[in-house]
């Protein structure tokens, strides 16, 4: 088993940097459905450019490399203790090499272990089987989509859909609702794994297990096969679209599994995975630990090509305006921006996510933020031998988590723009109106694309919160985002939520008897 460590390292690097072939094909198909010039088409172009850049740089597709979860099937007699040690070593090395973001955080103190090792991380699950080789699978599922997982306990009442009873049609309603409630926050278009039955724990386990299925496989259970097809078709009629911008593709795949339950419980558990669906697997020789085959990598590999993705190139088809922003930004300039405008940012921006927002709510800011731009982002950073920081991946994080703080912080420090993804709620919208602020939606998961826009790291504050949570001072060029909430009370997110709820209500009547 002397090659097992190298094999695990290779599995981790490939999973983080090279999107599987079946996922690429699903994204390419979605791209064909969007009309040129729409926000969805533009976002998908950024996504496919990003996939290509991750390939070329062997760098993380998305900066959130998730909670690494390994599932291994091993022959009787294989030494699981040694395998676990090798996996942990490979995780630490991949983190040091900038292929994984340091993501293991002490839940009580907030301390980041720095190497992705810690209580409960990574997750490693073994199962014995009677074959003579090892089947090792890895999924890197990020936090934004994990937060959109949902579990229903039947019977229940669902907004838009009414009562969901304890039968296949009730299950249908729950699954459709799960896609609606995720909106764009889990970086749609997504993939869902569904577990019917079990208890709260095994139901979620089963849902996540479905994410290890091949995108193109066909469910052996005829009822579930029909339900999977139905869900993909109807979820795409909700009009949520890429990043929740509206559009034709909301869901790229749905896989459903079923296990028994006990009479009093009937759970439907849904695991939502973003478009950056990073899961791979390898077949390993149990004697020497070498990789003999890869899973999910059969069929055609779509190599996306770099393409022009600015709104300007589609100016005839849309009325999209492109505005250049550079901090410090005046209130007048902000008031001029409207939902739908595309902005290109040059100059400085400062990262701030969960820890910084909490900190700024009762502390002073380490730098003057008047007229400045805050970027909801937790990057992957590497320090070189001269002590200089380099950005390895830097896409946006889900902004809604900052909803309790954002408005107050903007007003208190004079911040004019925040960049993130998935949109924010009524409290922030009100503050944008009162203060003269704007919310800019960047493309979630496009961590290579945005890293490329960052020309230098000018400084860092509040490093005690760890790399993803520190306040990085970034100098950018041509950083593109869309105005989705403006200072006049308009929110694209609120509009898409409302229209998708109306569409959801069309699926109220029973379909599966
Ligand atoms: O933690 C991050 O960088 C992003 C996260 O996966 C999210 O989607 O919000
Ligand atoms: S930022 Fe988006 S693409 Fe990245 S892990 Fe989070 S949900 Fe997935």
Automatic annotation (TrEMBL):
<feature type="domain" description="Fe-S hydro-lyase tartrate dehydratase alpha-type catalytic">
    <location>
        <begin position="6"/>
        <end position="282"/>
    </location>
</feature>
<protein>
    <recommendedName>
        <fullName>Fumarate hydratase class I</fullName>
        <ecNumber>4.2.1.2</ecNumber>
    </recommendedName>
</protein>
<keyword id="KW-0004">4Fe-4S</keyword>
<dbReference type="Pfam" id="PF05683">
    <property type="entry name" value="Fumerase_C"/>
</dbReference>
<keyword id="KW-0408">Iron</keyword>
<comment type="similarity">
    <text>Belongs to the class-I fumarase family.</text>
</comment>
<dbReference type="InterPro" id="IPR004647">
    <property type="entry name" value="Fe-S_hydro-lyase_TtdB-typ_cat"/>
</dbReference>
<dbReference type="InterPro" id="IPR004646">
    <property type="entry name" value="Fe-S_hydro-lyase_TtdA-typ_cat"/>
</dbReference>
<keyword id="KW-0456">Lyase</keyword>
<comment type="subunit">
    <text>Homodimer.</text>
</comment>
<dbReference type="InterPro" id="IPR011167">
    <property type="entry name" value="Fe_dep_fumarate_hydratase"/>
</dbReference>
<comment type="function">
    <text>Catalyzes the reversible hydration of fumarate to (S)-malate.</text>
</comment>
<dbReference type="Pfam" id="PF05681">
    <property type="entry name" value="Fumerase"/>
</dbReference>
<keyword id="KW-0479">Metal-binding</keyword>
<dbReference type="InterPro" id="IPR036660">
    <property type="entry name" value="Fe-S_hydroAse_TtdB_cat_sf"/>
</dbReference>
<keyword id="KW-0411">Iron-sulfur</keyword>
<feature type="domain" description="Fe-S hydro-lyase tartrate dehydratase beta-type catalytic">
    <location>
        <begin position="291"/>
        <end position="495"/>
    </location>
</feature>
């Amino acid at each position: 088993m002397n090659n097992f460590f190298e094999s695990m390292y290779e599995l981790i690097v490939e999973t983080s940097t090279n999107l599987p072939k079946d996922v690429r094909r699903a994204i390419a198909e979605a791209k064909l459905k969007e009309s040129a010039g729409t926000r969805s088409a533009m976002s998908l172009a950024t996504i496919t450019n990003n996939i290509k850049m991750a390939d070329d740089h062997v760098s993380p597709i998305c900066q959130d490399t998730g909670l690494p979860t390994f599932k291994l099937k091993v022959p009787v007699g294989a030494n699981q203790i040694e395998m676990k040690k090798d996996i942990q070593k490979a995780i630490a090395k991949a983190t040091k090499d900038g292929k994984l973001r340091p993501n293991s955080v002490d839940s009580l103190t907030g301390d980041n272990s720095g190497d992705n090792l810690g209580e409960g991380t990574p997750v490693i699950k073994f199962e014995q089987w009677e074959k003579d080789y090892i089947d090792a699978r890895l999924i890197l599922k990020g936090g934004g989509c994990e937060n959109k997982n949902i579990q229903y306990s039947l019977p229940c009442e669902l907004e838009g859909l009414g009562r969901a009873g304890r039968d296949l049609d009730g299950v249908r309603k729950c699954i459709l609702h799960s896609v609606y409630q995720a909106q764009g926050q889990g970086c749609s278009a997504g993939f869902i794994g569904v577990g019917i039955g079990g208890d709260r724990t095994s139901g979620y386990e089963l849902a996540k297990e479905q994410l290890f299925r091949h995108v193109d496989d066909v469910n052996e259970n005829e009822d579930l096969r029909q339900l999977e097809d139905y869900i993909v078709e109807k979820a795409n009629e909700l009009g949520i679209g890429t990043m929740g911008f509206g559009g034709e593709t909301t869901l790229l795949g749905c896989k459903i599994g079923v296990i028994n339950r006990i009479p009093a419980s009937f759970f439907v558990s849904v695991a939502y995975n973003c478009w950056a669906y990073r899961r791979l697997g390898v077949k390993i020789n149990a004697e020497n630990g070498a990789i003999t085959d890869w899973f999910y990598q059969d069929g055609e590999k779509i190599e996306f090509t770099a393409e022009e993705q600015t709104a300007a190139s589609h100016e005839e088809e849309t009325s999209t305006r492109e505005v250049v922003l550079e901090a410090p930004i005046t209130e007048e300039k902000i008031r001029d921006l409207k939902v739908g405008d595309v902005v290109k940012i040059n100059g400085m921006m400062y990262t701030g996510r969960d820890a910084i927002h909490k900190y700024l709510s009762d502390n002073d800011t380490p730098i003057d933020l008047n007229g400045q731009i805050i970027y909801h982002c937790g990057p992957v950073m590497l320090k070189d031998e001269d002590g200089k920081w380099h950005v390895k991946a830097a896409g946006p994080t889900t902004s809604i988590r900052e909803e309790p703080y954002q408005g107050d912080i903007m007003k208190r420090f004079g911040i004019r723009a925040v960049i993130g993804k998935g949109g924010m709620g009524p409290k922030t919208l009100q503050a944008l109106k009162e203060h003269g602020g704007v919310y800019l939606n960047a493309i979630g998961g496009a961590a290579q694309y945005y890293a490329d826009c960052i020309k230098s790291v000018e400084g860092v504050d509040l490093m005690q919160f760890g790399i993803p949570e520190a306040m990085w001072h970034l100098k950018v060029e041509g950083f593109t985002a869309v105005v989705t909430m403006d200072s006049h009370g308009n929110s694209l997110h609120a509009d898409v939520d409302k229209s998708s709820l109306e569409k959801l209500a069309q699926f109220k009547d029973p379909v599966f008897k």
